[in-house]
Amino acid sequence: MKFLFIGDVIGKPGRDVLAARLRKLQRRYAVDFTVVNAENSAGGRGITPQIVDETLDLGVDVITSGNHIWAQSSVEQSLVSEARLLRPDNYPGRPPGSGLYIGTTRSGDSIAVINLQGRVFMPPIDCPLAAIDRLLDEIGSSAKLIFLDMHAEATSEKLSMGWYCDGRLTAVLGTHTHVPTADARVLPGGTAYCTDVGMTGPYDSVIGTRPDLAIERLRTARPVRFQVASGGLAVAGAVVEADPATGEAIGIETFVDPPFGSDSQE
Questions:
Q1: Domain span at residue 109?
Q2: Quick check: 221 pLDDT over 60?
Q3: CATH number for the domain including 71?
Q4: Domain presence at residue 214
Q5: Could you read off the pLDDT of 29-64 as tens digits, one per residue?
Q6: Catalytic: 68?
Q7: Looking at 68, 151, 176, 178, which residue is catalytic?
Q8: How many whole angstroms separate alpha carbon 11 and alpha carbon 47?
Q9: Predicted structure pTM score
Q10: Residue 212 — φ and ψ, nearest 5°?
Q11: Exposed end of the chain (fewer CB within 10 Å): N or C?
Q12: Which of 79, 68, 57 has its CA nearest to residue 8?
């Protein structure tokens, strides 16, 4: 089976390019299951119930998120009512929603999707390593295909999670930093890994923000209200091919569509 994972969708530009290109990507890679991280899809911070519905209607099977999931208070109702919308499972206490989805692919194979958040250079929350152990116990034998969106800042923390899960998960795919990394590979135990799959939105930017505003903040060290950029729209993500009988990854391919510098880039 083939699993399509799309990196952080940034604001309306990101939603627009996702809507324009998702079906083509699904056909190109003969995709069986699609996951999209959309935690920045509402003006660059958070997601709303309306955007949740619009994203699922595009043909997305599960939406993952990260530390900005709480930015739009209205999303809490969706976290309760829509099982296909995930928030990082390792938040302390009992917040709305879940970080685990168990369902089936288009070919009828059972699949689990997990959403966790890192702690290095990020808000202090529960240990993601302990969380993955707990969630794997919960999944048990109900799914061999298991995919993790590891939403974290530090490369070292994402790499540590990849090695910790090698041989136990189908894939560990990183989000949050919005910059595609060139380290996609299948680890020795059969787990596909990539530190960050990149973002979906305007690449003529500073991780999605207008460059002039990001530069102004750096120059002045004063608060600057960021705005989502609009140029260089592209979808970034990864396609993982896996054996549904064993749950092992066979291969992983990352992409930016359209490629940087191509004539078709909007």
A1: 2-205+231-257
A2: yes
A3: 3.60.21.10
A4: no
A5: 999 999 999 999 999 999 999 999 999 999 999 999
A6: yes
A7: 68
A8: 9
A9: 0.96
A10: -65, -35
A11: C
A12: 68
* Cα–Cα nearest to 228, from 89, 43, 39, 1: 43
Res. 199 pLDDT band, cuts 50 70 90: very high
Q: Nearest-5° angle of CA 72, CA 97, CA 240?
A: 95
Q: How many domains does the chain have?
A: 1
Average pLDDT over every residue of 16-32: 98
The verdict on residue 224 lying in a domain is no
Distance CA 1, CA 7 (A): 20
pLDDT the model gives residue 263? 58
Is 218 domain-assigned? no
Instruction: State the residue for tokens 């288009």.
Output: 106
Q: How far apart are CA 259 and CA 236, in angstroms?
A: 9
How far is the C-alpha of 192 from the C-alpha of 249, rounded, in Å? 6
Asked whether residue 41 is assigned to any structural domain, the reply reads yes
Q: What's 24's DSSP letter? A: H
What stretch of H or E contains 146?
strand 145-151
The tokens for 134 are 């707990």
- Helix, strand, or coil (residue 257): strand
